[in-house]
Design goal:
disordered N terminus, Hydantoin permease, 18 helices, mainly alpha, transport, transmembrane
Amino acid sequence: MNSNNGQWSSKLGFILASAGAAIGLGAIWKMPYVTGQSGGGAFFLIFVIFTLLIGLPMLLSEYIIGRSAQKEAITAYKILAPNKPIWSWIGKLGVIGCFLLLSFYSVVGGWIFVYSGVSVVGGIIDPAVNSGDFFNQVIGTPWITLIGLALFTIANVVVIALGVQNGIEKANKLMMPLLFILFIILVIRALTLDGAMEGLKFFLWPDFSKTTGESLLYALGQSFFALAVGFSCLVTYSSYLKKDVSLPQSAGSVVILTVFVSLLAGLAIFPVVFTFGMEPAEGPGLLFMVLPAAFGQMPFGEVFLAMFLILFLFATLTSSFSMYEIIVAALIEKLKLSRTKLTIILGVVVFIASIPSALTYSVFSDVSLYGRNIFDATDFFVSNMILPLGNLLIAIFLIHVMDKNLVKNELQLGSSVGERYYKVYRTLMTFVVPVVIVIVLVYSLSNY
């Protein structure tokens, strides 16, 4: 048993924590603007298909590896392949990837912290304030971005230091239901707007004439991001799981919740965008620039904007918890430090490592890496190289290195799935998933 960090107190706690790890910037920030840039309904439908055929088997694979080993990511691969220590590099790659991801993810989390605070006191929606100028001021002012980064880092350190049950599980049990409640309120408000039907048609009606090879690849990548697979975060999370919990049922629940939030994000955003004549393909600034302008034209717009930003902050935090946890769990035995001390040290290191990305749009605005600024280069390297590589290695490990009977037994333990389910799962992991991942990886490398 993974004794250092405890267990989940319940299956619900594990599912909400796994969903929290998955539901973050990918579902709420990235999904709407990528959908907007990729033609709307056709992209969303393709994303759902890829999430079921590729994301779900990968999620299940991380669960199987973690619970069968009952150890965090690096040690798990050592235990399951004792004579092949090189495979422990999958876990190490996950730790490195999570650290690099945190170095720019925390920056966006800091922006959201700033926006949430300002929106609560009514400082964003103002006739005298241009939402685009305000966003540029936030990201372009060093002390504002660093304060936001510090607040986001402190929030993570406090929760992770409290441990699995008292920290991560309790936070997710509070934040995830609130996230769904706030989202549903926002969707109801959005659907009552005059231009709601036009936004719904754009988001839900598949128009495959706008589908390109690039949008297909974006959909594949989004299925990875949406479920947080590839960094072995969920290997660590599932190592705290009891043996009587059904892995297929848990994975299915997380997939349904993740797709549901992605659906809610579109339902909340596109009716607003179309009602007020905004551009759905706005890009990464959609949430920070377009929505404040749109909410500003609604009755009680400041209230709804504050609700949306707080919701977004919750989702961002629950995802970052999983990134911190995989690093803490991997280092706690090796360094022989208490969880609290190690988490504080990690928080300081992450804060320092995040400074270049935080100052990308101010002090380091002239710095370029492969034609990209520091923030975008780090994002591209992590999201389009390390993440697909991690998924590919996990797929190869599960099919060609792990004991087949162990995989089958772990899949069926605590569940009612039969031989047919196992065969479909193994077929997908053997033939479909690796081929798709290689396509994504090759495309990413060719565009770096």
